[in-house]
Write a structure and sequence with these properties.
Helices cover about 20% and strands about 20% of the residues. The chain has helices at about 1-25, 75, and strands at about 35-40, 45-50, 60, 80-85, 100-105, 110-115, 115-120, 140.
Length: about 140
């Protein structure tokens, strides 16, 4: 009789341990990583924040309400800086003043933000060349 109880208790313990192991071994949620940005020095503006391809980042004063307004045709000239699905970013990046985050675009993609404003690149910029600071309400993100 004791053997039967012990076998039953052992089975319950085995199920509990298996359940615990599956939870303990589950992949952790994605940890925040530094935003995909760096500082570059431009001839005309000095230090600005840029993508890893060295394209300057911009904010648009029409989005000071912290909502995405550049959609459709606007994104052809001003491509949004998008993150991969599930990617999270750290708010602060060493050497860059300001706070990074994300916003969900109307199409469901995730866009990088700086000080809560969505950030973009400009289609005619090239590596280390920032052409449109203070043009039609678009401003380069300064590294400071």
């Amino acid at each position: 009789m004791k053997l039967a109880r012990s076998a039953g208790a052992a089975a319950v313990l085995a199920v509990a341990l298996a359940s615990f192991a599956s939870v303990a071994l589950a992949a952790p949620s994605a940890a925040p990583v530094a935003p995909p940005v760096l500082k570059i020095k431009t001839a005309n503006l000095g230090l600005v924040v840029a993508t890893k391809k060295k394209l300057g980042l911009y904010t648009w004063n029409q989005e000071k309400d912290f909502k995405v307004h550049c959609t459709g045709a606007c994104t052809k000239q001003w491509p949004p800086v998008l993150l991969m699905k599930g990617e999270r970013v750290k708010a602060m990046t060493a050497g860059i003043k300001g706070e990074f985050g994300t916003i969900t675009r109307p199409d469901g993609t995730t866009q990088l933000t700086w000080n809560r404003q969505p950030v973009y690149t400009y289609e005619h910029d090239t590596a280390n060349v920032v052409l449109c600071d203070n043009v039609d309400g678009w401003f380069a993100v300064r590294a400071k």
